[in-house]
Amino acid sequence: MPVNLSLPYEQDFAVYGAGKAASAFLASFREGGAAAKMHCFIDSKRSGFFEDYPMLNFKEFKKRYGTDLPIVVASSFALEILLALDKSACKKISLYNFLENTLVSDHQVGVLLQRVKAKELELIANDSRHAKIIAPFIGLYLQHLHRNKLESHRYITKLIKHLLAKADFQTCKTHLLSLSCQIQSETAKPNKPRPTSVVRDKLLLYDTIFPSPIGTFAWEEYHNYLKMFPQANLYSLGSDFRDIENQEDFDRVFENYSTSHPHLAKRVFPFRGELPLAKTKLFYTLFLRNIYAFINLLEAYDIPFAFTLYSGGEFGLNNQKSDQMIQIVTRSHLFRKVIVCQKIIKEYLVEKSFVQEERIEFIYGPIAQVKFVQENLKPKRFFPEDKNTFDICFIANRVMPKGENKGYDTFIETAFLLAREDDRIHFHVFGNWSKNIIDISVINNRITFHGTLPLSRLLEHYKDIDIILSPSKPFTLAPGDIDGAPNVATIEAGVAGVAVFITDDLNQCTEYHSGEELEIIPSEPITISNRILHYFKNPQKLYKLARNGQNKMALVHGYKRQIKPRLSLLNNLLHD
To answer: Domain 370-556: which topology?
Structure first.
């Protein structure tokens, strides 16, 4: 959606920022075709060019334009910039909210700045209008206050707890997590002898989406840990609720879990900035980003840890930042084990000498909710006997503008080709997608967008789905970024009797035989469409492929192969 520049920007203006937010603003500005002229970009220190526009440092800008030219602040560090501009007597300052793709007027910015300067951040958080404006920037602003010792640990910690309890601040929870861990580790008393009366027997689990059923692999893993280990407590940041559950807050998600699992729910808590570490024997989490956030805190309290290194979560092959994070984590004297589900990641860790092989627990995965799918299967309807349409679906969470990393663009191109061949072929999209992401007008009456659904509701649709198409592309989202193959969504669809068609550029489907249990496809839409047309004309062959895949995926990704070895590993570490 283009930025609406009708605020004060029918006149000329400049943009303060030179990063992703500034690029996003410029893209929307160009798309919107506004009559206003953008003169330049401003950066605190640098000069040169940005996106073909002159880039001036602020001193140069003031010398050339004075304080009358309106400024749009488009930066993740917006609050610090707004305060600096306010001191410089700039007259018209508006703010670009890159998450909402909207402009905040100079009047609203003025009111906001008055409250920030009056240290009324808690009041801002309680005001939904201002909360939505400030949410993308508050985490980095609090880091700025802490780094420059502008506020006390006590004040910042209190504010973090307040913000983490607010649903409006899902977007900055990762920054708040990092800062709260930093403060807690800084205020810890290193190497302080623990009282002999304190028994360290607790398993502390941390996640960002549990207990939401949308994160099926995390739900399945942590739910079983809570069942197996009565000494386990889980703290959830809930930072993934916003993108996946339309800003549902922790309380609502927790209430649903508590209703169905009241005894386990007593040991599930929202993360509010601090963890109870005194009695912790072992810390466990998923993803590189999460364990890295806690590493200093764990070392300050001398707590051993293990984690699962999935693709995603800031891990990337031959990615310098990712490599540095891995080394910091695995060189800690408290590191015990890393669980790896993808052969390519295990080989990478060993070849780079990041981890000794004996400290890697390789469990071909990932985890999926196999038992739940099997217990809630709906009677399958087959084409053409039970239904008149041949149905193909795509399911993923969108994180790129056109979903390039998940292959949404490839799916749509394939749909265009198939739609020309037979009007009985229909398409379904699950996740945070819409018809506006890519123009689908030519197949508008043949494609349905269902939104993000829990697995229980997906199963209602899977009874009519013939193929799930997953044409994901590695190294697209970020340098070194990869996806699992098969991934959780395709596995659960496969266990529900849907034929799986998937790209596997990195040869990860080592447990499967293409053409027998699933179809490994290239990324070219024409080749994919031809392969699908072959099965469309031979549906019994397709349903045999689906049955074989259903049985194999249930075996490979079920409790015995996935959960049982993890339980054994954690039990051994707890009793080490």
So the answer is: Rossmann fold (3.40.50)
